[in-house]
Amino acid sequence: MRKKSLFWIFLVLIAVIIPYQNCAPGFESNFEANEALSDLGDGGSRVVPKPGEPIAITYQGVRPLTKVELETSLNEVLNQDTINSNQWDTNNRKPFDNNSELNIYDKQRVERAFLTADQLAQAILSNPQATNQLFPCATKNIKCVNDQLSRLMTIFFRGMGTNNDLSQYQAFLNEQAVSNSFEFAAKQLLTTLLLDPKFLYRTEEGRVQANKEYKLSDIEYLNKLSFFITGAGPSSDIVTKVKGGFFNNSQNVENYVNELLASNKFNNNMIRFHADWLGFYFHKGGDTFSKDAFKESQQLLEKVIFKDNSSWFNILTSKSTYINNNLARNYGLPEQSKDVWRWQDYGARGRSGLLSHASFLSIGIDGQETNPTKRGYHLQKTLFCGKVAPPPKDIDVDMKPPPVKNGRDCKIDRVVANTVDNPGCFVCHRFMDSLGFGLENYDYRGRFIAAEKDKPECDIDGQGQANTQDETGKIINLGDFSSPASLSEVLVTTGAIGSCLSQRLIEFDTGMTIAKNNPLIQKLSNYFDKTESLKDLVRYYVLLPEYRLRK
Amino acid sequence: MSNLKDKLAKIDRRTFLTGSLNTLVGLPVLDFMLNSSGTAFAQNVAIPKRFFMMTNGNALMNDKVNPKKVGKDYDLPHALKVLENYPHLRNKFSVVSNLGMNYRKATKVKYGPGLGPDRNAFHHESMVVQLTGRTARSAHNARSASADYLLRKYFKTSASHEHFSACVCLSAYGNNNGLDSRAAHQFNDNGGRERGEYNILNYYNKLTQKIKGADPKVEQARIKALKDKKSVLDFIEKRKLAYLNNLVSSNAKQKISDHLDHMRDIEKSIVSDMEKGQAQACEKIGKPKDYSRVDNVNDYSNEYERSLIFVDLMAMAIKCDLSRYGTLVITPTQNMINHDKIKKLYGVNTSANSREKDYHGNTHNTNVAKDLNHDIWLELSAVYRWHIDVMLRLADKLSKEKEGANSLLDNTVLFMPSEGGWGPMSFSSGNGTFNGPHSCDNMTQMYITGLKELKQGEHIRMATPRHASEAILTAMRAIGYKGNLGDITRSITEMEG
Fold it and tell me: Whole-model pTM?
């Protein structure tokens, strides 16, 4: 099944950079450049080591924690969900919420962090359980705050605090102690810790080595892999151990990594990774159908990655899915008298894995209508890690192409006439529409449709072609498909998805956009090809010597 | 409109306030009413005039907003019917129509995005051009300051005067992609995007910390709270070297240094609040309910409730002289909104909407776009009504607050620019030419004021199209601003009182 085609070689090297070319006259539109698509189409700054340079994985010195990372870390410390979604500023995605180009602390974000710190400190201290977590003293007084200072700095700074930091904070607390009030001193301390750059930022600086490489310290390394694997900072216990030399023994490192990989936090973080990567994150907080759709995908990811630790490809090829009657009805699968969540076989319906899910098929659509261009764009970007230039500025990507003169008023005909049959447009559209066509039989909720809504004459043959491009501009046809199942087959057999998964994993870790020809991608991809296990791939990645290097 | 009136009347703003009743901290005597000795109001003391934008990230369908009659006592088209709930404001509310965006060819606006350099000024780019009076640097970035950043300089206000900058912030187009940029309807001196505050509680806390307490004990507590905050910031500032010395790369040092610079700005503002605050003691609104911004496109996002709270905050900011200029972004451009609730609240009970969670997307349906009688336009017009109602609610509050011999509204301009107008859309190749909302032709702007420098309560229709930025500039000059708006130098004399 894992037969590799020759295209695999191309895929690990390709950079689908399609040159900007306007549509030929004939499809005249005078609309805005679509920023949403442009954002996706713009690869941003891409990092590729120069020849002879070490393959370093960490590229930057400091970067802000995301809203989720801040909340997860703090909730873990407090052992409850005190922190809710109202706190801190939201993050922009590209595709991940930790993209550091899009999420810098500008003036407004700093102000929000300031106001949030004040609110949060107040909220925490109004909650006895949370207060006890942070200040576990029988008597709550100034001494208690002082006694807990060192511990709290370890927690909030994740081991990055120094003796100088401690001295400064002690002096600060002494100033605050004049009121002799626990509440006051504790609030001032908490507000300050929540506002301290050492809490708000991750630091991965490293120190220069004899060979001029920058190597992360043990604590920096601990933080990096903890955030990557769990989405939260390390516990104070492991920080203390690592400060005591725990990571001097490589077996200890591996054991700790295995511990993290076995935790539910890894499971949750990998769901977050996939939801951002594949683009269905927004279903999580949606209406009932959206939440059901998210749960379906979440359960499949959990089963494959966490519970079974089976081949990651099962995410694409699974023949059964986790549904309730709401989803069964949607997919045309048998409902059950008792509406419970269960694993149910798809049967021979052209469905397999996550690409069949409503969560995924609801992306790249126009309201309740499919849009082969937008969906195809999403597929190219997401599954092939391809890059498509933004649409010409005078093209409105939201407008339906005009109908074909003297022809049927069918969407497929309009798209074909205005993009596929238009050489100027086809330059780019071959990498979008031909992908989108292959899923046209699946509507905006993933339901099978044989024809356009209310237009039986507009039958849909659903034949698609997986086109992408290598870095030389050569067009690669990875095969034909006509359903989520056959598209999944193309992705798996050609190895395209393994390469893309590796790239996105590195990007999720570093918060940067990585060039497709970065040798690390190939290194990870090669490993993944052997194991097919995401858990093993993550383990392999964080234990690589270069994982601790900074460029 | 009686049903609409009843429905809206049932939703009092206090519905959205939680916690204690409003706290009367003192009497509404503004500092600018005092002479230099701080003792008496002198009639020859100039009362400051104010200017606030309330932006609408949608294009306006002409027949829903443009009265047929020009001048006073104009008729009320669909979207303006909300004015019937505020009869006392009819003679203050003005509509300026036949504006356009054909940059440098303002006397000859033709098609859609026009023929000049701004021919593609759409969606956010349209706001960039309108608000700065210059061709945009890019779709989301300006070349220079927008109106309220120019006014910031004009007022030369101290840090204690808040640059009001907030956003109701429902979800933006495309699964929330680019919400922050689409909600940025202000541009700083470098043309950089500035986002408004959307966190209700954050903004409430920020504003109320500026209000002096009439009761010495309350005031003492306010000053202490500010001192406490300042001591936190002082401490972080003191640690600057500790942060920077631990970093190796210049990039990292720069990031942290910039971060600390921003914190220093906050500290300056706090110092100013401590030293000056605002001299009057005034009525604080109760602590509002914290409706968070919803960042997905699937559910109703409490937009209506959030907008009313921001109106309360804005009214408080004006009444307490915390702010004299600024912007409330009611909707970002290309917004997604589940407007089922809003359309019902505003008296539209049709169900034409196939994309009920995609306000902007609805305007792309070419089949219905050609059908001017289609219910979909009524549904979109309901959302216009909501925007106008938000402005009217604020105006209503200001009109009931005395300032000298007049009301706060008599010294304030509330101005509502919208993203676009209604004009021929050349995408119609093969579909026939028809008008649509993706156009900067036939733009309409609205304002409400009691300022004598501007016409009041009129429908002012340009005989020949004028640049939309000129209308904004005219309103800015009405409060005393002498400069230009980007490259726009001409006022619209027809708007002048």
Answer: 0.84
